[in-house]
Structures are given as C-alpha cells and as structure tokens.
User: Fold this.
Amino acid sequence: MDLLIDISLLTFLAVTAIGIIRITNLFAVIMLFAIFSFLSATLFMTMDAVDVALTEAAVGAGISTVLMLATLALNKDHNEKQPDKNRHWLPLAVVLTTGAVLVYGTLDLPDFGDPASAPQTHVAPHYIEKAIEETGVPNIVTAVLASYRGFDTLGEVVVIFTAGIAVLLLLGGRREDPLDDGAKDKRVPQNLVLRIVSKIVIPVIMLFALYVQFHGDYGPGGGFQAGVIMSAAIILYSLVFGLGAAERIIPKSVLMFLTSLGVLIFAGVGIASLFLGGNYLNYSVLASSQVAGQHIGILLVELGVGITVFAVMLTIFFAFAGRERS
Amino acid sequence: MVLDILSWVCLVAGGLVGVVGAVGIHRFPDFFSRQHATGTTDTLCALLILLGLGLQAGLSLAAFKVALIFLFLFITSPAATHALASAAVHSGLDPKRGRTDSEGQS
Amino acid sequence: MDFVVSHYNYLIAIFLMMTGFYTVISRGNLVKKIVGLNIFQVSVFLIYISLSTVKDGVAPIYVEGVKVYSNPLPHVLILTAIVVGVATTALGLALVVRIKEAYGTIEEDEIHSQDNSL
Assistant:
C-alpha cells in the first residue's frame, strides 16, 4: 500500500516536472513549482522523513513561491520567449547521455527500504540506539542536528546569514521612505474579508511557529521550520496590510540585529562549553548532568537557528518587496 | 468496527468530492465558474477526509489536532477563494455571460 | 520488473534531475533556469531520503518499544539543505532582479546581444 502511494506520487512529480518545462507562462510555471514542492513534501512524509516534509512544505511551497512571484512582479513580461526549435538537440543529447550514465549507476544502489544497506549500517544505528540516553531528546533528528552534528548546523546557519547579507547588498541599497503607505495601498485593494481573516489567522500561525520551535525536541520541528513559519506570518501581514505597516512592526534595524543575534547565540553556546572545559559545542558540560546539559544546549542552539532563519527570510522578502515599490 | 466503516465511507466520499471538483475545473468555461467548482467542493472534501481521519484516530490527541486543522482550513480555504476571485475582478476579468460555445452546438 | 519497482525512487529522481538539467541548459529565461535548478535540487533530496527509508520503519522519533526507525542522518542533511537552498535561490533571484534593471530583459540571448553590441 505504501509502495503504491509512493509510486503514484513519484509519477505525479515526473508529470509536474514535464509540465514545468513545457509551459511558457512564467506565472503558471511558478504555480506548478509550488505544486511540485507540495508533492515532494507529501512524498517525504510517506518515506518517514517528517521533519524534512515540514521544512519542504514551509520553505519550498511557501517562501520560495513568494520570492519567485515577487521577482516576477518586478518583470513586466510574464511570458517566456519561445525557445528556438533547432537549439533542442544538443541539450537533449547531453541530458540523455548523462541520464543513461546515472541509470547505470543505480544498478549498484541498494533496494528501496533495504535495512541492510550501507547507509543503515554505519553511524546511524549509534544515533538511533544512543540518542535518547545521551541527549534525552526523543526526536533523533533534532538530537543529531543540534548536538551530534552541531558544527555542521553552525556552518549552515552561517551560510543562510551570508545569503541574507548578499541579498541585502544586491537589493537593499535604495533609499526609501518607510512610512510611504499611500502608493502601496492604492494597489492593494482594501479587502475587508482578507483583513479580518488574516487577523484571525496570523496569531495562530505565530503560535504554531512557537510550538514547532519549542516542541522540536519531542515531535517534528525545530529552529529551521519555526523560523520559516514565523516569517511566513509576517509576510502574510505585509501582503494584506502593506509593506509599510509590516516594516513599522519590525524595522530593518531590528531585523539586522536579530540576524546576527541568532548566529551569535549558536556560536556563543559553543564558546561557553569551551570555557566550561568541554569541546566546542559539547553541551554536556553546561549543566551538572550530561542529559540536562545537552537539553539546555539543544534548546539554545535551536533558538539561535530559529531567530536567524526568521530574520533572514524576512530581510530577503522585504528587500524584494521594497524593490517593487521604489 | 462500525466506526471503521463510517470513517472509510467518509474518506472515500471526500476523495470523490475532490475528484468532482477537479472535473469541474476541466469542464467549466471561465475562471469564476471554475472557482465555484473548486471553492465549494474543496471545503467539503477537506471536511469529509478530516472527519474520516478523526474517526480513525478515536478520542485522542491526534483527533484534537485533526479538529484544529479542520478549523484552520474552514477559515482559510474560503478566504483564499475570495482573494483569488477579488483579485480577478480587480485585474479586470469579467465573467462569461450567456451560453458557452460547446453548449450552443449541442 | 523487480529492479524497476525496487529502484523506482532512484529512476524518478534521475528523471527529475535530468528535467531540471535540461531546463537549465536549454531555456534562456533566467527565472525558468532558477526553477530548473530547484527541480534539480529536489531530485537530490529525493535520493537522500530514499536511501534513508527502512522497510517497516517509523519516523525517527523515539517511542518506547519501537526498534526499527528510518535513518535520521540524511534527514538532518536534507533539512538544512532545503533552508540553505531557499537562501541561495533568493540570492539567484536577487541577481535576476538586478540583471533585469540593468539590461531591461531576463532572456539570456538578448543579454548576450546587448553585451556584444557594446
């Protein structure tokens, strides 16, 4: 039964991908890509990767789509130029050859779901057996993310931080008046239904983001997902009430501060454990017992991740939306 | 046992309603009637499927979460439909009036 | 036939990867190129998650008495990769916006012809 669901979802994915190639209206392409992301999130769900599914649903289908639409809104032309028919053959040949080589490569891959395959037999059994007693965190993904591979995650957070800064350098330079609401409001119709519904929904989204953040030790979730969901709430607010209103709630200077604060918390926890006599990012020394220390460390690190992801996503969105206005 | 049958009836019915909505998108002539087809079936489809799932879960935390999801969808789904329709009106799309071509021929 | 069923995930992932690759190299529109890159990216996620799945396993959240879990390590890698992916996509889109402002178009061949005519 699971296999059947898997196979039909994968087939849907393939069909959607073909649709994305063939359609030339960019607006439709982006909508199809959102569907593609949702399908892949469902697929991750059926393959037991609940944390990944949550992230993909929030990021791929949510933030990515909004950013692509914002880019498209800055382009007046929503149609792709028809590609030249004669230029198809070379790319097609390259793609078919590469594909054939890769298919040949799959001959050596283990069967789907094989419990004796190489990825299942090296380091993973240690995490699965020992994570609960070493860290006291039932969600093994969170334990690996924040504790065992904390250094990796620190690197990823720095990458996100850097990307945020780079987008700001590219798009954020233009001087603008943050209180200039009039121009925006003329284009966004004063829609009563949307205003009221979003007033009901936004607090719920924020509450859910906090739940995902702090329940990440016990269920699917964590800083990455929570940060994205929280920023989605603010993005919704700025879509309905105008960019100026959203920037009054969270000014750019506060966002800059939060962006660096998250990375600082993460790295600071590492330094703190260094001073208390452990290795960098070894949280066991933060409290009297190992499990308590790990718990504090994971909580703080996830908080840092959440703050940085939230602030960077919002910075990026504001940069794109602000470009539209000026 | 009865609950199990009932929940499956709900799940299958919800799926069917969803398919009917999808057929509506293909068959209806213009944006607004298509919106009508999906917008109305969407909520019912979600209701039936979530009801079926809730019955499967029984009285538990999972059923409570399903109820919350339903509440959320019940508010947001019509609002999304409304937003789409009002955006269409705002950008100057007029509903098709009168008989459509395919009806005229038959 | 057995091979196809037991390797269906990988085959579709390769198909998606090639679809994304094809979009990137054959289409001149920059937004579409970025969508193609994203499809490529999702196909990589798919391969990792497929490798992490264990038959009859459950999601890697510790429950008393359950012995078989899916492999948590690929989940961690992909979870962070998704968020990093959106950050890099945003960077790409920001470049597209700047190119549009500088050249007035997002079609690759028009940009090239403008460059050559300088």
Observations:
- Chains C and B do not touch (no CB pair under 8 Å).
- The helical segments of chain C are 2-6, 8-26, 30-52, 72-103, 108-117.
- The mean pLDDT of chain C is 89.
